[in-house]
Amino acid sequence: MIPFQFSLHIVQEDGATEHISFLAEGTGDPRPAFLEQLDSTLGSSGSIVVYNESFEMRLLKELARDFPEYGSRVNEFLPRVVDLLKPFRNFHYYNPEQNGSASIKWVLPAITGMGYDGMNIDNGMEASISFERSRSGMFLRRRGQG
């Protein structure tokens, strides 16, 4: 897994929200630019809320290993990570529309009424494949079109 994109919603102390996103460009390794933007965006305090901590932490640790110049900074992020999956996985919150699942694909529409239906790319693996193909000049066809 090569991280090439992130989307952050930063909630300030006064409650104001700012959205910052990153999508790698070009054909080179996206990880240095990803790390640079992540480093400049996350700051040095505050919780980093993720969905599926084990996945996100594994990627961060791999980035710290592969790019030692960012290692200490990335390691400062790790204790700040809060896993939003836990309340759903532990059934501290449950909506019958989750169909027994804590997956974000079930939780998001159960809570917000919005989900992944109708999106051209609706899962991480498909996003990774599409990203690699776009960098090499090959493009995925929309699902169901050949």
Secondary structure topology:
Blueprint lengths: L4 E7 L5 E7 L7 H12 L5 E3 L2 H14 L1 H10 L3 E3 L1 H5 L14 H9 L11 H12 L11
Parallel strand pairs: 3-4
Antiparallel strand pairs: 1-2
Q: Stretches where pLDDT falls below 50 for ≥5 residues? A: 138-146
Net shape: globular
Order of helices and strands: EEHEHHEHHH
Strand order of the largest sheet: 1-2
Protein structure class:
alpha+beta
Query: How much is the average pLDDT?
Result: 84
> How big a fraction of the residues is strand?
5-15%
Give the number of DSSP strands: 4
* Helix proportion range: 40-55%
Radius of gyration over alpha carbons?
17 Å
**First-to-last CA distance:** 26 Å
In brief, what are we looking at here?
By secondary structure, this protein is of the alpha+beta class. It has a domain at 1-83.
Give an overview in words.
By secondary structure, the protein is of the alpha+beta class. It has a domain of 83 residues. Helices cover 42% and strands 14% of the residues. It is built from six helices and four strands. A two-stranded antiparallel ribbon has the order 1-2. Helix 1 crosses helix 3. The two termini are 26 Å apart. The C terminus is likely disordered.
